[in-house]
Amino acid sequence: MTETRIHPETGKVLRRGVRPHAVRFGSMTRVVQAPGWYPDDGSDSIHTGADLADADEAFQQLKTAYAAHVRKVRKRLKLTQEEAGRLIGGGRRAFQKYESGATPPSEAAVGLIEILARHPDEVDFLRTLRADLEGPGLAAVSSPA
């Protein structure tokens, strides 16, 4: 006989089971099998801390792996953290946090990091683009009259 319970908010019948759960950090994803209480229609499920232990472990592993990936891409591009922060966004402190795994980059930063990982020659285009945006014309437009 299958164990069941009622969802405290939706009132739906939940059954004990295991389903795939995608864990993400940066551009990396890992699928783990997550035990829990699931409705038949795929809506809200309920999990205990023990149910999510594998997902938590996968998240920690992805955090470490993505931090190393960001550092590897930056070094392969021969960028300092300061320059990477200026070109990709967020500044030097943001890159320190990305490379330590303390903070994931924004979706926009992840996109730029992954483009540069696959097309390192585009860093020169990004430098030119940033220089044009930061050039004297921008300062003149933004200065008070």
Describe the structure.
The structure is a single chain. The protein has 145 residues and is of the alpha+beta class. The chain is 51% helix and 19% strand. It has a 3-stranded antiparallel β-sheet with strand order 1-2-3. Helix 1 (53-76) packs across helix 3 (91-100) and helix 2 packs across helix 3. Mean pLDDT is 90; it is low at 138-145.
Provide the fold topology.
Layout lengths: L3 E3 L6 E13 L2 E12 L13 H24 L4 H8 L2 H10 L6 H12 L3 H13 L1 H7 L3
Antiparallel strand pairs: 1-2, 2-3
Helix pairs in contact: 1-3, 2-3
The number of helical runs is 6
Q: What is the CA-CA span between the terminal residues?
A: 77 Å
Strand order of the largest sheet: 1-2-3
Large-scale geometry? elongated
Low-confidence stretches: 138-145
Q: Average pLDDT, to the nearest integer?
A: 90
Alpha-beta content class:
alpha+beta
Helix content: 40-55%
Strand count: 3
Radius of gyration: 22 Å
Major pleated sheet? 3 strands, antiparallel
How do the SSEs run, as a string of H and E? EEEHHHHHH
Strand content: 15-25%
Characterize this entry briefly.
With 145 residues, the chain is of the alpha+beta class. The chain is 51% helix and 19% strand. The model is unreliable at 138-145 (pLDDT under 50).
